[in-house]
Design goal:
Blueprint: H1 2-31, H2 49-56, H3 62-72, H4 92-104
């Protein structure tokens, strides 16, 4: 009986930590001004969240590639506009959480992250 409770607690904590990480991804995205250049559906200075999701859908390397792109910045993936690297004190863990959040979005018509 005690092992059943332990399993239930572990499962609950796992679900809670996933939801917490997703919420933190959106917070990190906004707190670092990413939403200034990356809108949901419309291209702005950078590609939209929708374009990012579409381009990298099903790509097993997307998480690592986008984390590196956020860290170092650059151009060429979606045109010639240069994306600046993210500045300190954003940690590698926060970048990972934010990219997970971006790639996990299920877009709805007219949804805004602003």
């Amino acid at each position: 009986m005690k092992s059943a409770y332990l399993v239930a607690i572990v499962v609950s904590l796992s679900v809670f930590s996933t939801a917490f990480a997703a919420e933190n991804g959106e917070i990190i995205f906004h707190d670092n001004g990413c939403n200034s250049c990356h809108y949901v559906e419309e291209k702005s200075a950078g590609p939209s969240i929708s374009e990012i999701i579409t381009k990298y859908a099903g790509d097993q390397r997307a998480q690592a590639w986008l984390e590196e792109k956020v860290r170092r910045g650059g151009s060429g993936s979606f045109g010639t506009t240069n994306m600046p690297p993210i500045i300190e004190p954003v940690t590698d863990e926060e970048i990972e959480i934010m990219v997970e959040w971006i790639l996990s979005q299920k877009l709805e018509p007219h949804r805004s992250f602003d």
